[in-house]
Amino acid sequence: MENLPSLTVPTREVPIPSTVSPELQKQIAAPIPPMVAMPTTAEGWKALQKEANQVYANMAIAGAQQLGITIETIDLDGVTCYRVSPKSIAPGKENHAILHVHGGAFLFNAGMAAIGEAMLLAQACQTQAISIDYRMPPDYTFPAAPDDVLTVWKALMKNYDPKSVVMGGTSAGAGLIMTTMLRCKQEGIAMPAALFLGTPFADLTKTGDSLYLNAEVDRFLGRYEGRLVESTKLYAGSHDLHDELLSPIYGDLSGFPPAILVSGTRDLLLSTTSRVHRKLRDAGIPADLHVYEGMSHGDYLVAFLAPEAQNVMKEVALFFDRYWQP
Amino acid sequence: MENLPSLTVPTREVPIPSTVSPELQKQIAAPIPPMVAMPTTAEGWKALQKEANQVYANMAIAGAQQLGITIETIDLDGVTCYRVSPKSIAPGKENHAILHVHGGAFLFNAGMAAIGEAMLLAQACQTQAISIDYRMPPDYTFPAAPDDVLTVWKALMKNYDPKSVVMGGTSAGAGLIMTTMLRCKQEGIAMPAALFLGTPFADLTKTGDSLYLNAEVDRFLGRYEGRLVESTKLYAGSHDLHDELLSPIYGDLSGFPPAILVSGTRDLLLSTTSRVHRKLRDAGIPADLHVYEGMSHGDYLVAFLAPEAQNVMKEVALFFDRYWQP
Predict the structure, then answer these.
(1) Does residue B1 have a pLDDT over 60?
(2) pLDDT, tens digit, for every residue of A133-191?
(3) Which one of A232, A247, B54, B279 is least enclosed by Cβ atoms within 10 Å?
(4) Which of A16, A214, A291 sits opposite B1 (nearest CB)?
(5) CB contact under 8 A, B9 and A292
(6) Any CB–CB contact under 8 A between B36 and chain A?
(7) Mutation target among A7, A27, A224, A275 for the B interface, most CBs of B within 10 A
(8) Distances (CA, A) of B134 to B49, B81, B106, B130
(9) What pLDDT sits at residue A2?
(10) What is the mean pLDDT of residues A198-218?
């Protein structure tokens, strides 16, 4: 392998896909985020987090009001969570729940910033979502986040049948869900009925064809260098990034619940998504992959009003409907 | 859309994925095919076809001998076909058949050159495959090829239950299968139990994100310009490329049989594959998408000994097993 040559890909012009919705086209036309210096102090990170989180929290709260979604702050065995209830619950789904684990490179989307995706899931599935406000760096590094997710899962199981609960999240959230499944296996704990793994950040070792092919193409992440590398460092500390609880793609995925995976042609993590899909399939798990034209990493959360984003949520809801039990 | 800017993607170095098999790595290390002048006369095309077809025919015949596969030339209502029988037929699959439609940009793989994929399918599914040697340019242009496929399908239905037959093919073959399904719908003819659509060349209009993103990346096709453009012209003649019988992605796919679709991260037709997947899903068709790390267009046929290629065929066989009936 070391002796095999890399491919030099020449520069190219990539038009905006003509077949996607005007809403997504507008999103695709946004500039690639520039490479910026990352904070070097805890205070610097906290300032950056506060600023970013405020934007998303405001959006989520405004959206909730518009859609008649109720948000309650709850405590589950010491972990703050948000119960997100849509206006109407589908008949038969009164005792169902979507356990939501937010993304944000293990650093962002604390507090109410997390609940945008939980709202989309709750709306599409017409049942409640419970979003975990897990601890993050700089104050709390690995394994604080997966500890919190596992704590909430265990707490929830006191009142729910595991087969009436699904788990879902995007990017780091999907990675944390996979880590939690590995820990459920280790501890012999029941797993949920099904998983939504949106473009999972399940490999922190900078491995994957699309990390190179879609560098400077993915308009949400831009490139692996910078934010992803630095946030990974901050989260993992001195732990080996190949540790399966950090990079769950390297764990044994046999026995995982059925999973739906979502990516896009411009997603920096397209390879990670399809590699997780293959690992699940090779372990005999029912697993569905959906790749959306022109979408960058997690675009369905950014351009959440685009028909394609609604289509993602519709597929997720249909998938869950195949697996959760009353 | 016309006012939205295209993306200028800078040059990059793309390493060979570390997570794929040595066999596939070797394949990925092969150089991108250079842009060459296409023939300008019928004789020129025929010479090119003859040369290419001979290479693949020899490979297929040698492979058949090695694997103990029997190849019979048969005539189905005037169309030459090859019946490809594996050494052993799985119990219960004695009356099953895989109708195989070969790829090759509507120009290549005439004669025995076509049967390599049919052999892989027959081996994986442990049942017979019937591969159609449909007519091609320069002598026979559209709609000769889909006419032949439909003729064979109708001929086969005299002796088979449609639900005991599946159809499969790659690239132009997958496109022709989709065209045939549209014609079955038009004529009210039964459709097969399931489809394998390998990286379907289902859109001849040069539409799709990956046509740009994976230009000079796909080591089988290289780029859309040149061979694909010229062969499409030769095949379609003066017909509108948006005609749904030429570009079946623009047809109404409702009522299609369940389909499994395969592509790769370096596939020039990744977008076409995922767009067809989405159109099938939006029409309510069970449809599974598989994207393989590092694979270019149809790599599972070129690097057919790689574990990943075997994995493709295993997924196809598992998918068919869900749908065909005794």
Answers:
(1) no
(2) 999 999 999 999 999 999 999 999 999 999 999 999 999 999 999 999 999 999 999 99
(3) B54
(4) A16
(5) no
(6) no
(7) A7
(8) 14, 8, 9, 12
(9) 55
(10) 98
Distance from CA of A77 to the nearest CA of B (A): 40
> Which residues on A lie below 8 Å from B260 (Cβ)?
none
Query: pLDDT tier at A81 (50, 70, 90 boundaries)?
Result: very high
Tokens describing residue A119: 């709202």
**Nearest neighbour of A14 by CB, restricted to B1, B9, B14:** B9
Chain A residue nearest residue B217, CA to CA: A9
A23 close to B (CB below 8 A): no
**Residues of chain A found within 8 Å of residue B15, distances taken between Cβ atoms:** 6-7, 212
Residue B274 touches chain A, beta carbons under 8 Å: yes
A281-284: long-range pairs with CB below 8 Å, 24+: A281/B290, A281/B315, A282/B311, A283/A252, A283/A253, A283/A254, A283/A255, A283/A256, A284/A254
* Contact across the interface for A293 and B208, Cβ inside 8 Å: yes
Instruction: Report the residue of chain B nearest A262, measured CA to CA.
Output: B289
Looking at the complex, does the CB of residue A293 fall below 8 Å from at least one CB of chain B?
Answer: yes
Mean pLDDT of A115-128: 97
Identify whether the C-beta of residue B26 lies closer than 8 Å to the C-beta of residue B302: no
Instruction: Tell if the CB–CB gap between B14 and A6 is shorter than 8 Å.
Output: yes
Region B115-125: what's the mean pLDDT? 97
* B contact test, residue of A2, A3, A4, A9 with most B CBs within 10 A: A9
Domain A43-323 has CATH 3.40.50.300: no
**Cβ-nearest to B213 among A8, A207, A217:** A217
What ipTM score was computed for the predicted complex, to two decimals?
0.97
Share of chain B above pLDDT 90, in %: 96
Q: Would the CB atoms of A271 and B17 count as touching at under 8 Å?
A: yes
Homologous superfamily (CATH) of B42-323 is Alpha/Beta hydrolase fold, catalytic domain (3.40.50.1820)
Q: What residue segments make up the domains of chain A, in order of their start?
A: 43-323
Average pLDDT of chain A to the nearest whole number: 96
- CB within 8 Å of chain A, chain B residues 148-207: 207
Q: Which residue has the tokens 């190179």?
A: A212
Is residue B325's pLDDT more than 70? Answer: yes
Report the 3 state secondary structure along chain A. CCCCCCEEECCEEECCCCCCCHHHHHHHCCCCCCCCCCCCCHHHHHHHHHHHHHHHHHHHHHHHHHHCCEEEEEEECCEEEEEEECCCCCCCCCCCEEEEECCCCCCCCCHHHHHHHHHHHHHHHCCCEEEECCCCCCCCCCCHHHHHHHHHHHHHCCCCCHHHEEEEEECHHHHHHHHHHHHHHHHCCCCCCCEEEECCCCCCCCCCHHHHHCCCCCCCCCCCCCHHHHHHHHHHCCCCCCCCCCCHHHCCCCCCCCEEEEEECCCCCHHHHHHHHHHHHHCCCCEEEEEECCCCCCHHHHCCCCHHHHHHHHHHHHHHHHHCCC
Model pLDDT for residues B28-80, shown as the tens digit of each residue: 999 999 999 999 999 999 999 999 999 999 999 999 999 999 999 999 999 99
Average pLDDT, chain B: 96
Phi and psi dihedrals of A105, rounded to 5? 55, 30
